[in-house]
Design goal:
By secondary structure, the protein is an alpha/beta fold. The chain contains nine helices and eight strands. It folds into two domains: about 140 residues, 3-Layer(aba) Sandwich (Rossmann fold); about 60 residues. Strand 6, helix 8 and strand 7 form a beta-alpha-beta unit. It is globular. The two termini are about 25 Å apart.
Length: about 220
Amino acid sequence: MDHSKIKWIFFDMGHTLLDEDGVHISRLEELTDDLHAIGKECPSIEAMLDEMVEFGTLGKKSPFGSLAKKYGINKSYPYVPALEVPFPETEEALRLLSEKFKLGIIANQRGGSAHRLQAHGLMKYIDFVYSSEEMGRSKPAPDLFLSALDALGCAPDEACMVGDRIDNDIRPAKKLGMMTVRLRQGFYRNRAPECEFDIPDADIDGIGDLPSVFGIKKS
């Protein structure tokens, strides 16, 4: 794989740089309490997490929302960013990559993404943050990617998109001519490609494997 032209590496946030399991476990605990309050039984938290993976494999937009709907609950459960944590290898991967590339964020996130990354000690490696709420558009819309590239004066073939979702990260970026790397983690880790644009240039199990994709050895 030729990455000689790459100048910028862009990342998704959830289940890419940040482990969201704690957030979803908290939501599932609240969902369980609500079900028990109305006399309904439900599986264990672990079993419901597995069900969310099944919904992700089917390409559902919101695995948690699909799960709640399955059990007859129509309620909005808060996403608590304070329960996110970086994956153990996130900072080291960003440190190594930042020595050779510019690093950015293109993510479907609410405002304050840079502040959240700062709280985790990661913003010192990040040169650019584009979140959907702040920009008024969201992935997989191509104009979110194009707007980011245009703002940086970066051609698509000079950029790489790294993310966990085929539909939001890999497919739209590859259609634009960007290099793509898929992380097989999170609720969409088992989703199968549906077309040629769904097949990434590299497929890895976690963020710690990313530097080696670009020929960078761990120090």
